[in-house]
Write a structure and sequence with these properties.
Layout (H helix, E strand, L loop, with lengths): L1 H24 L1 H6 L8 H20 L4 H14 L1 H8 L2 H6 L4 H23 L6
Helix pairs in contact: 1-3, 3-4, 4-7, 5-7
Length: about 130
């Protein structure tokens, strides 16, 4: 289990860093899934991307892991409305070429799996 936790830590960290960079490299994708009722779309895309990079890096470092994990939980909850918007917007799904199944039955529950992993990594390992 310790090996799995170490591997998941690296995969998650790199994943958050990669997706965070994508917020700056390809903001149009993230802009397209922003719910219309939210203001300041582009700044919010950049802010969430910066937090993904910072928290992904923080997850790697043992001293900041607990705080980064809790930050990721907050971030995942904060961006959940965009996932709900995507899941229930067929026109948007077609525009970004994602199936309704992937948008709703995979992407929405995956957020809770990621929250679970973040919580797991927030627990201080007393064995080390």
């Amino acid at each position: 289990m310790k090996r799995f936790k170490s591997i998941s830590l690296v995969v998650l960290s790199l994943g958050y860093i990669y997706v965070g960079i994508q917020h700056f490299y390809n903001p149009s994708f993230f802009l397209s899934i922003m719910p219309p009722y939210l203001p300041y779309h582009l700044p919010l895309v950049y802010i969430s991307g910066a937090f993904e990079i910072i928290l992904g890096l923080g997850l790697i470092l043992k001293k900041s892991r607990k705080y980064a994990a809790w930050g990721l939980i907050a971030l995942l909850l904060a961006v959940y409305p965009a996932n709900i918007y995507l899941a229930f917007n067929e026109e948007l799904q077609q525009a970004i070429d994602i199936s309704a199944f992937l948008a709703s039955w995979i992407r929405l529950p995956l957020q809770f799996v990621l929250i679970g992993f973040a919580y797991w990594h927030s627990i201080v390992d007393t064995n080390n």
